[in-house]
Specification:
With 351 residues, the chain is α+β, with helices and mostly antiparallel strands. 33% of the residues lie in helices and 14% in strands. The chain has 9 helices and 13 strands. It has a 5-stranded antiparallel sheet with strand order 3-4-5-6-11. Strands 7-8-9-10 form a 4-stranded antiparallel sheet, with no helix packed on it. A two-stranded antiparallel ribbon has the order 1-2. β7 and β8 form a beta hairpin. The longest helix has 31 residues. The two termini are 70 Å apart.
């Protein structure tokens, strides 16, 4: 059906002139040819066709919502190690294939629905507008606002409620795909960062010999590294746990310990401090016997183990946490609880 087949009174009224046509002459060799005559679309003259286009747009937006739900369902239901054969690609990850198909389809159907809406239902009348200065005088601002209102009216967003509602539904549901991807960041930490696996009664085990430590095993001036009893290198969570639970064991003369709490938490001058530097988490390994200082090899933060492991040099912001220790009935060094401060770099500012 063309506009020639429709009575004049049924055709939509033109919204603006198509621009004046000028004739080329010596003063104006580049004449303005004007705009071509406007051809009405079938949706402009037949409400049934407009309704069909409306249903197509609504279908595309609804399909986008279903694909988003499919994305979420695939993410939850399909195992990460499952593979499928897809011709001609071959064997690929079923999860990746499903996520790519549903996410791409959801985006495509939103875009296709918006394009079809604009091409079939929104106004397509070409309007000539004169160039204007960069600045926006009040009358231009008023014109822009009027044009915006006119465009909003021509989009029929208020009248085409089916399109409006399904579009809002698709746009509101689609971001859930990104929210689901946050699941890959891992489980919420809760209070895990504030605690280690040290607890009352856990023995201090020598990292080198893998044997429990007795007080006689720690000589004055020596540096020994320890881990909690029951933590083995073959454990799946070994690296995660040792990064918080690694200890430095040093024996000092009790009269050389300046900090009162450090002396109370020690056993016969044996003190246990976290091995994790409070700057960026490097393992501390350098000990100076005469000064009782330990040095982080990464950025040279220096801690005084005779004075509560406070920072005396470098970028570290906090003293090393101390673990309170004692001796078990069998004569082995044991923890009397967990660290009272969170272990690791810059945690106090974040937590």
């Amino acid at each position: 059906m063309s506009s020639q087949d429709i009575p004049e009174e049924n055709l939509p009224a033109e919204q603006d002139a198509h621009g004046a046509v000028s004739v080329a002459d010596e003063q104006n060799p580049f004449a303005d040819p004007g705009l071509p005559p406007h051809e009405h679309r079938v949706q402009d003259i037949d409400e049934r066709a407009a309704k069909r286009s409306e249903r197509v747009v609504a279908f595309l937006f609804t399909l986008s919502m279903l694909l988003t739900v499919g994305f979420i369902a695939s993410y939850v239901a399909i195992p990460a190690d499952k593979s499928i054969f897809v011709f001609p690609i071959g064997h690929i990850s079923a999860l990746n294939f499903a996520l790519g198909l549903t996410l791409g389809g959801a985006l495509f159907t939103i875009g296709a629905g918006a394009v079809h809406w604009a091409r079939t239902l929104m106004s397509d009348v070409e309007i000539a507008d004169e160039r204007h200065a960069i600045e926006a005088p009040p009358e231009v601002k008023a014109k822009v606002l009027a044009d915006f209102k006119q465009g909003a009216k021509e989009s029929a967003l208020g009248r085409r409620k089916l399109i409006r509602n399904t579009m809002f539904g698709a746009l509101a549901l689609f971001p859930l795909s990104g929210v689901m991807l946050l699941r890959d960041l891992g489980p919420l930490p809760g209070t895990k960062l504030r605690h280690t696996i040290w607890s009352k009664g856990k023995l201090l085990v020598n990292m080198n010999t893998n044997l429990p430590l007795r007080p006689s095993d720690v000589a004055v001036g020596s540096l020994t590294f320890a881990k909690p009893e029951g933590l083995e290198e073959t454990d799946e969570e070994f690296q995660t746990e040792i990064a918080k639970a690694a200890l430095m064991i040093v024996r000092l003369q009790p009269e050389n310990i300046k900090d009162k709490r450090e002396l109370e938490w020690a056993h016969e001058g044996i003190v246990a401090f976290s091995k994790i530097c409070t700057h960026v988490g490097c393992p501390i390994s350098l000990y100076e016997q005469q000064t009782h200082h330990v040095l982080c090899p990464c950025h040279q933060s220096t801690f005084d183990l005779s004075d509560g492991a406070r920072v005396i040099f470098g970028p570290a912001g906090h003293a090393l946490p101390q673990l309170r220790i004692g001796v078990s009935d069998e004569g082995y060094l044991e923890a009397l609880g967990d660290f009272e401060e969170p272990v690791g770099p810059a945690f106090w500012e974040r937590g």
